[in-house]
Design goal:
With 610 residues, the protein is an alpha+beta fold. 20% of the residues lie in helices and 26% in strands. The protein is globular, with a radius of gyration of 26 Å.
Amino acid sequence: MRSPSYSVLPSGTARTLLVLALTAGLSAAVPAARATAPDAPAVPEAPAAAAAPVAATPYMGWSSWSMQSSKYPGLNPDGDYSWLTERKVLQQTDAMAAKLKKYGYSYVNIDAGWWRDNDWKPEFDANGRQTADPVRFPRGMKPVADHIHAKGLKAGIYLPVGLEKEGYGGGTVPIWNAPGCTTADIVYGDLRTTNGWDSSYKIDFSRPCAQKYIDSQARLIADWGYDFLKIDGVGPGSFKSGDNYDNVADIAAWQKAIAATGHPIHLELSWSLDIGHIADWKKYSNGWRIDTDVECYCDTLVSWENSVDDRFADAAAWSRHGGPGGWNDLDSLDVGNGAMDGLTEAERQTYMTLWAIAKSPLFTGDDLTRLDAYGTSLLTNREVIALNQSSTPAARPVTATGDRQVWAARNADGSWTVALFNLGTAPAAVTADWASLGFSGRGSVRDLWSHKDLGSLKDKITDTLPAHGSRLFTVTPHGPAQATTGYEAEAAGNTLGGGASVADCGVCSGSHKVGNLYLGGSLRFNDVVVPKAGRYTVKVGYVSGDPRQAEVSVNGAAATTYAFPSTGDWGTAETVGIPLSLKAGANTITFDSGSGYAPDIDRIDVPKRA
């Protein structure tokens, strides 16, 4: 996989040079000031609006990283990652206030590099805390936050986890407001490293001075007026595991330090966090990146193949974990700049559709001063934004996945959010069966992208979508609940093959499941009875801690391979629908692992009518 951002260590030769810079010269003395850029205009500070609870809904805003990291012509003329300056941030702030604020976008987030020059050499204050690079931010970081607040917006800033090596200063740097504490008193004596790039020393929170250092960082950020902090390179995650990369104690310390400031600060974690620690991320933070960087580190901001499409495989596992106070973060939403985004119009709509239904924060990395008409229409669609910001749970696949996917979520009023996706490279028809939503008959359909009511449709909705295309609907059932007949996987009348076996399952129907479906293991449901021949959407209850496939066949006919998204862990059960053609009377339905690994099967529910 490609290198994540440091967010920054970049890829290629630039990355090698910056690794050398990061690991050399461990002086914490404040460097002499370099030549400064022209002063930005002073803006009087205005009081921020009354604070809502932090992360009550997925946050909306803008982040600097996508443009910093791109090689799009003209974006970084002074070298890689040189885009980030005070002038550029204030331009984006003004553009957000003028174009997007009224739609709910509020955070202006400054990403990595604000304390480093174009050669990636850092600035630290006398207490080992990052401070503004005088060329990038000649007036320092507080006036930038003041300008953002004056526009009625919120200011965000970024730090890597741990004590950066350059801030250690031989261990003699005093910790602010902590008499007797120095940087030697906050890290492990062997100077073990941590974070996704090993660019920091791991902080030892069994030592009293350690919390004091985090307190000092939080106090500085709060005094500058920042309302949002992204902590990057956090583990377990960021492609690292093991004790050195377990930063749960760091995040707990940050939560404690932020609370002590009395200033509400949204705490966001990055990147590719370990889902096994979701209880910790929920307890100590307001959001967590579930995946790697969405940026392509190429001559556009993103690309479809780079990692936009990866989110479809990864988001399902996390779907049940986001909610008020903390949200699953899919990363920047770069759909507003046309050619610079690197995507087709269909891909741009699909990108935002997934972010919206997954209840991800909606923060764009686009140049807000040059939004095109189509991108603006996506970013400002009030119905799609309202869906993302509502109490609707995150959607997840309701059909066994492949290139033609249907995602859905049940809304509080009984309606359904339904998204159709064609992830293939050619146009294809995608169908959402009402049976997969648990009802039959008719349902009223509202198209959220076109703002049109499509009327009352019977049994399903089908549309032919372009390559990487999507549709997004609200479906209101008018028919009755779908009557089904349930068949337990562990029933004595079923046939197990290979190594398949019955196992206990506290989250499963009947408290059992059939597992060990691998390398030829199989489960055959016998005597599955339907009244007439037809196509039935059979719901499959299953458990799978990772994405898996199963070969499904009916009555001994040729099998079709279905992909089952991860349920997040081996203690969570979910359901998906698969379309099967059944004959009148008794049928057999077989789940075979083939040469791979299939999910554990809990039960199937078969509609009583086609």
